[in-house]
Amino acid sequence: MSATIAIRIDGRDVRVAAGISVAAAIAQAGVVATRRDVAGEPRAACCGMGVCFECRVRVDGEEALGCMARVAPGMEIVTDG
Amino acid sequence: MAEISTEVLVVGAGPAGVAAAVCAERAGARALVADMQAEPGGQIWRGQWNNATNRDAARWLGALASSPAATLFGARLVALPRAGHALFDTSRGAVHVRYERAVIATGARELLLPFPGWTLPGVFGAGGLQVLAKNGWPVAGKRVVVAGSGPLLLAAADTLRARGARVALVAEQCSRGALAAFGARLARTPRKLAQAAGLFARLAGVPYRTNAWVVRVEDDGTSRRALVRVGAHERRIDCDLVAVGYGLVPNLDVAAGFGCDVAGGRVVVDGHQHTSVPGVYCAGEGTGIGGVDQALAQGEIAGYAAAGRAERAAGALARRDAAARFGALLARTFALRDELRDLAADDTLLCRCENVAFGDAAACAEAREARLMTRLGMGHCQGRVCGAAAQWLFGWNAGTPRPPFAPVRIDKLDFSAYSPSDGV
Ligand SMILES: Cc1cc2nc3c(=O)[nH]c(=O)nc-3n(C[C@H](O)[C@H](O)[C@H](O)COP(=O)(O)OP(=O)(O)OC[C@H]3O[C@@H](n4cnc5c(N)ncnc54)[C@H](O)[C@@H]3O)c2cc1C
Ligand code: FES
């Protein structure tokens, strides 16, 4: 098994494999949406490559694209879903 | 703000950018390669950094690791305040790079076309879900429909299957005849034919249909179905994830930011990959979609040329031209069918960021009117998704994003910290 690290997603402690993307960690934690559109509908990662901005979340207080950022120990991820 | 100086700045660390940086260093120039991803490899070699199994990937990523070229990852080029200066947005703050010559190797993105259900969570681009899965997105045990057009569908299905997904169907919109002609032409390029045959062999048991495309995705909160047109029939396929990509389109924003001429949706270059701007080169998908062999050959040529040693690239010229012929064949084979223009309903969103309905955009005469009247393309992605779609759907010239190329905090664009001698 690859090493796991501890992070927080929407205030919940989770352990994920080191080296995965923030977007993958969010999906693994069972969080379906990373944001809501103006009509309140859920949205989540789509392009996987930093183009669509659907996966944007807050990582340690800063806006980041979940598909581009990698998890790091102790990271605090907050979605808008 | 951190500051770095380099002779050759390479923007993008996919195959083209890696080859450019390695070759520029080989020719004696100091090179810096930057990418917004956390590691080199671009779209195709993503996740291969530590355990490259692919021969090209192992060779080139190894060459980069052992070359003196500097690297800057997790860094997105957001502004080009003036010639010789580039500004990158990183999680550690802005980085200001001074360069003498530049190689643009920013690759391509998928063409995503609107259809009812395409904004649901769990509906992705085809390469999109592939790269997400490579970076740990959970697909094991999931039933997936892969659809759209081009060889990427097979590569995506292969990755997904290797990670435990059940690929229920690969739906290719092109005709069986076009695909057969493609196969016959591939036979002239044994390496490509072997790759394709290998992919098909690994995908044995996965249904692959031509003349097939996703019409819509329905989700009632507990179950999900993709409606797929296959020839004259419509099929409902129960699934968890849907991945639809209609081929690739060059990323032009960075090249346009440098002021390079763009024609026919690609960056204009000469035989040495030199753009219309002195000292600025372009390599890889930005010059037209041609695949990894084209990216590598063009990257080598651009890297040597940017280092002032264009003659050292002689060996790559023939490979580049062969790859360009393959690119032209791809474009012919996987040309998109007109029916795809009719998938979106009037209330289907076209602009995902600003929630602009397809019908409202379609009522406009051109892109500028749509921007002003509906805010099409004015959101976070700056039209990278809907602009490319509108270009294909309506023939609009959507233009390219202008600096800053991504929504960044204003303090990252603050040049007041520079002394006047910086000339900024
Ligand atoms: C989603 C996707 C999946 C693919 N999967 C496969 C596959 O499995 N097999 C296959 O044969 N081909 C695949 N392809 C095609 C493949 O990408 C190309 O054949 C090849 O990688 C092109 O190389 P490149 O160097 O031109 O561009 P890319 O590999 O696209 O590299 C461009 C790089 O530039 C970076 N970049 C872009 N803009 C900026 C910016 N503003 N600032 C900093 N960095 C930036 C990107 O992050 C990227 O890493 C895929 C393409 C896509 C879009
Ligand atoms: S999934 Fe599109 S930007 Fe991250």
What's the helix and strand layout?
The complex is a heterodimer of chains A (81) and B (424).
Chain A lengths: L3 E6 L2 E6 L4 H7 L6 E2 L5 E2 L12 E4 L2 E4 L10 E3 L3
Parallel strand pairs in A: 1-7
Antiparallel strand pairs in A: 1-2, 3-4, 5-6, 5-7
Chain B lengths: L1 E4 L2 E4 L3 H12 L4 E5 L19 H12 L3 E4 L1 E8 L2 E6 L2 E6 L2 E4 L3 E3 L12 E2 L1 H9 L8 E6 L3 H11 L3 E7 L3 H11 L3 H13 L5 E2 L2 E8 L4 E7 L2 E6 L2 E5 L2 E3 L2 H6 L3 E2 L2 E2 L12 E3 L9 H15 L7 H20 L15 E3 L4 E2 H5 L4 H8 L11 H9 L30
Parallel strand pairs in B: 1-7, 2-3, 2-8, 3-4, 8-21, 10-17, 11-12, 11-17, 12-13
Antiparallel strand pairs in B: 5-6, 6-7, 9-18, 14-15, 15-16, 19-20, 22-23
Bound molecules: flavin-adenine dinucleotide (FAD) and FE2/S2 (inorganic) cluster.
Pfam families (chain B): Pyr_redox_2
GO molecular function (chain B): oxidoreductase activity
Keywords (chain B): Oxidoreductase
Describe this structure in words.
The complex is a heterodimer of chains A (81) and B (424). Chain A has 81 residues and is mainly beta. Chain A has a single domain (4-78), classed as Beta-grasp domain (Ubiquitin-like (UB roll), Roll), CATH 3.10.20. Helices cover 9% and strands 33% of the residues of chain A. Chain A contains 1 helix and 7 strands; from the N terminus they run ββαβββββ. The mean pLDDT of chain A is 95. Chain B is an alpha/beta fold. Chain B folds into 3 domains: 2-109 and 249-331, FAD/NAD(P)-binding domain (3-Layer(bba) Sandwich); 112-246, FAD/NAD(P)-binding domain (3-Layer(bba) Sandwich); 344-394, no CATH class. In chain B, 31% of the residues lie in helices and 24% in strands. Chain B contains 12 helices and 23 strands. Chain B has helices spanning 15-26, 55-66, 126-134, 152-162, 176-186, 190-202, 253-258, 292-306, 314-333, 358-362, 367-374, 386-394; strands spanning 2-5, 8-11, 31-35, 70-73, 75-82, 85-90, 93-98, 101-104, 108-110, 123-124, 143-148, 166-172, 208-209, 212-219, 224-230, 233-238, 241-245, 248-250, 262-263, 266-267, 280-282, 349-351, 356-357. In chain B, strands 4-3-2-8-21 form a 5-stranded parallel beta sheet. A 5-stranded parallel beta sheet of chain B has the order 10-17-11-12-13, with helices on one face. In chain B, strands 1-7-6-5 form a 4-stranded mixed beta sheet. In chain B, strand 3 (31-35), helix 2 (55-66) and strand 4 (70-73) form a beta-alpha-beta unit. Chain B is globular and about 60 Å long. Residues 414-424 of chain B have low confidence and may be disordered. Chain A binds chain B through residues 16-17, 19-21, 23-25, 27-28, 32-33, 37-39, 41-54, 56, 59, 62-64, 67-70, and chain B through 36-38, 43, 74, 76, 91, 109-110, 112, 119-125, 127-132, 135-138, 352-355, 379-381, 384-385, 407. Bound molecules: flavin-adenine dinucleotide (FAD) and FE2/S2 (inorganic) cluster. Residues 45-48, 50-55, 65-67 of chain A line the site of FE2/S2 (inorganic) cluster.
